[in-house]
Design a protein that fits this description.
about 325 residues; eight-stranded parallel barrel; globular; binds 1,3-dihydroxyacetonephosphate; binds zinc ion
């Protein structure tokens, strides 16, 4: 049993309060390996941004939960060594059961998501409440994110055939009964690199897919019901077309890729949305740079020679998000 404070980590409580009143969102970046973690910390130190390091079920399986926990501990020391102590949260992304949340809390996570969004409403309430009771009763309060509404899209362990927008009429009851610390809502974002079907989009003069706008009307309704309550957006990669083109130039195939435009995320970040989840954009950046090295330098076989450029590009991407999309730069 480890408390996150022993690791130098923080929960989301104060960070969300500041983000909601300050009109910005915290970056929640998924990580599975050392290069991703290094890039996240380098970018967040450079831009003086707080950060949420997210671990999915897939990441726990791929990299081992204990190893990831110790990487987060290392991230705290790494930031210090880079010259600026930033607040770092270690968060379980899409926790699928009470047991997984409990396990992560006992491992030293400072925040967990219990994702009961696919369950009937009353079961979602009961499960989320159970996780909150456990997390909040720890010696060091662990924060809990719940979810109402289902995101469309398919991404490994996180899948939902159809999206169901969050119903604003449910949020007061859900937050009141569960005592959750933040709420993920569904307003049109979805996981992965192909967030909409081409028939849901229009095309610009260059044939690039333009997605339908997010449902800001639902977000506004939710904000009216629970003023100032921390809201979370999942599935918020923008799927930069430059990376898609680069991947395709170097032999990949990613047809019908489309993400959430940055201006819409910027608008959301100025509202009660205080955590924005980004994973796919990092995957695209890494893949693009690795493919480039493989094609341009076919005799290269030292992993540092392709993981290094991928890490450098990732850092650039995260710094850009903090500065120009989320508004979290300068808030640490
Ligand atoms: O929400 C989903 C994240 O992108 C994590 O994906 O389950 O493939 O690690 P993953
Ligand atoms: P993206 O697939 O849009 O990056 O979303 C990631 C996410 O929501 C992680 O929980
Ligand atoms: Zn998600």
């Amino acid at each position: 049993m480890t408390s996150y404070k022993e690791l130098g980590l923080v929960n989301t409580k104060d960070l969300f309060k500041k983000a909601v009143s300050g009109g910005y969102a915290l970056p929640a970046y998924n990580f599975n390996n050392m290069e991703q973690m290094q890039a996240i910390i380098q970018a967040c130190v450079e831009t003086k941004s707080p950060v949420i390091l997210q671990v999915s079920a897939g990441a726990r399986e791929y990299a081992n939960q204990n190893l990831l926990k110790n990487m987060a501990r290392g991230a705290v020391e790494y930031a210090h060594e880079l010259g600026y102590d930033i607040p770092i949260v270690l968060h379980l992304d899409h926790g699928g059961s009470f047991e997984i949340c409990k396990d992560c809390i006992e491992t030293g996570f400072s925040s967990v998501m219990i994702d009961g969004s696919h369950l009937p409403y009353d079961e979602n309430v009961a499960l989320t409440k159970k996780v909150c009771e456990f997390a909040h009763s720890q010696k060091d309060y662990v924060t809990v994110e719940g979810e109402l509404g289902v995101l469309a899209g398919v991404e490994d362990d996180v899948s939902a055939e159809h999206s169901h927008y969050t119903q604003p009429s449910e949020v007061i009851d859900f937050v009141g009964k569960t005592k959750v610390d933040s709420l993920a809502i569904s307003i049109g974002t979805s996981h992965g690199r192909a967030k909409f079907k081409p028939e849901q989009c229009t095309r610009n003069a260059d044939g690039i897919l333009i997605p339908p706008p997010l449902r800001f009307d639902i977000l506004e309704e939710v904000e009216k019901k629970i003023p100032g309550f921390p809201i979370v957006l999942h599935g918020s990669s923008s799927v930069p077309i430059e990376y898609v083109h680069m991947i395709e130039k170097y032999g990949g195939k990613l047809s019908d890729s489309v993400g959430i435009p940055e201006e819409q995320l910027r608008r959301a970040a100025k509202s009660a949305v205080c955590k924005i989840n980004i994973d796919s954009d990092g995957r695209l950046a890494m893949t693009a740079l690795i493919r480039k090295v493989f094609i341009e330098k076919p005799d290269e076989f030292d992993p540092r020679k392709y993981l290094g450029p991928a890490r450098a590009e990732l850092k650039k991407l995260y710094a850009h998000k903090n500065q120009n999309v989320l508004g979290s730069a300068g808030q640490a």
